[in-house]
From TrEMBL:
One protein family per Pfam: MarR_2
Name of the featured protein: DNA-binding MarR family transcriptional regulator
Residues annotated as domain HTH marR-type: 43-89
UniProt keywords, alphabetically: DNA-binding
Domain of life where this protein originates: Bacteria
MF annotations from Gene Ontology: DNA binding; DNA-binding transcription factor activity
Length: 146
């Protein structure tokens, strides 16, 4: 495997992940699930931050970060509070409690989206692929697999 193949694999996996995430009940959104997940990833790495700081680190437009934070606030995943040291700034942090929406997204299996991407309805092939992905995740992003 080379860098191009790895990059293309990553894009394919992102698309499968997006397909696997439940979207019912959230209505039309101004920003994509991908943008929201990029913002969440940055927020986990920088627990108390601002929209502008997230935009700088991720390269996303500030408007996209603001829209993602809006979605995350609606889902109960983040809280935004005025910075007590500088009342002009709003500090973003993960919510202390996991919301029902976040729990539903995290608990939704990828099997159907993966089967569609693989072009199969063979449950054994899907299970084997899920197991391979889980092993890869354990190795590359162990902090998420706790």
């Amino acid at each position: 495997m080379n860098g191009v193949e790895l990059f293309l694999l990553g894009r394919a996996l992102m698309k499968i992940g997006e397909e696997a995430m439940p979207s019912e009940g959230i209505g039309d959104q101004a920003t994509s699930a991908r943008t929201v997940l990029i913002v969440v990833s940055d927020l986990r790495a920088h627990p108390e931050t601002t929209v502008g700081e997230i935009a700088t680190r991720t390269g996303l437009p500030q408007s996209a970060v603001s829209a993602a934070i809006g979605r995350l606030r609606t889902a109960g995943a983040v809280i935004a509070e005025t910075d007590p040291r500088d009342r002009r700034r709003t500090i973003i942090r993960e919510a202390p409690e996991v919301s029902e929406r976040v729990t539903r997204v995290r608990d939704t299996p990828i099997d159907d989206a993966l089967a569609a991407a693989l072009g199969t309805d063979d449950p054994q092939r899907v299970r084997e692929t899920v197991a391979a992905l889980e092993e890869l995740a354990d190795r590359l992003i162990p902090q998420l697999r706790k």
